């Protein structure tokens, strides 16, 4: 499995001023967003050498932790903005070295996407990155291989 971090930005339910040319952060407006704003992180994962790339988006609430019910509302609200992507949301809590993520489907790949975000955003440099998605726990190790991360899951 290989993965790449694509971009990050802000989603907000209120209109923002247009970014200046020097700003590279993308800001997307989603009027039905259940919280004022959140950060999004786009990743792509190749599950096998012959499989197509699939997009995964991880959300991070900027106003505090996201519980399960709020995560489900948030994921549904942004689904139309990222068509075809599988979406997960950081719970905003950690326990020891575990990161908790809410997701509706594809738990293993969402864990990989969350590990990519944690590593590429420099929140977590230590390997493996431990991610818990629902009742499923994963230890994800990322190794840089030229243009993408090689992913090992335990």
Describe the 3D structure.
With 154 residues, this protein is an alpha/beta fold. It has a single domain, classed as Diaminopimelate Epimerase, Chain A, domain 1 (Roll). It contains two helices and nine strands, in the order ββββαββαβββ. The protein has helices spanning 68-78, 107-120, and strands at 2-12, 26-29, 37-46, 53-61, 86-95, 98-103, 129-133, 136-144, 149-153.
Write out key terms for the chains shown:
Diaminopimelate Epimerase, Chain A, domain 1; 154 residues; eight-stranded mixed β-barrel; globular; alpha/beta
What is the structure about, briefly put?
It contains two helices and nine strands; from the N terminus they run E-E-E-E-H-E-E-H-E-E-E. It is α/β, with parallel strands linked by helices and 154 residues long.
How would the blueprint of this fold be written?
Blueprint: E1 2-12, E2 26-29, E3 37-46, E4 53-61, H1 68-78, E5 86-95, E6 98-103, H2 107-120, E7 129-133, E8 136-144, E9 149-153
Parallel strand pairs: 1-2, 4-5, 6-7
Antiparallel strand pairs: 1-3, 1-9, 3-4, 5-6, 7-8, 8-9
Question: What Rg is obtained from the alpha carbons, in whole angstroms?
Answer: 15 Å
Order of secondary-structure elements: EEEEHEEHEEE
Secondary structure: number of strands: 9
Instruction: Please give the CATH architecture.
Output: Roll
The helix tally amounts to: 2
Strand order of the largest sheet: 1-3-4-5-6-7-8-9
Quote the average pLDDT.
85
Helix/strand-derived category reads alpha/beta
Class, according to the CATH hierarchy?
Alpha Beta
Main β-sheet description: 8 strands, mixed, barrel
Question: Could you tell me the strand content as a percent range?
Answer: 35-45%
Low-confidence stretches: none
Please give the domain count. 1
- Approximate helicity band: 10-25%
Inertia-based shape: globular
At CATH level 3, the topology is Diaminopimelate Epimerase, Chain A, domain 1
Distance between the termini: 13 Å
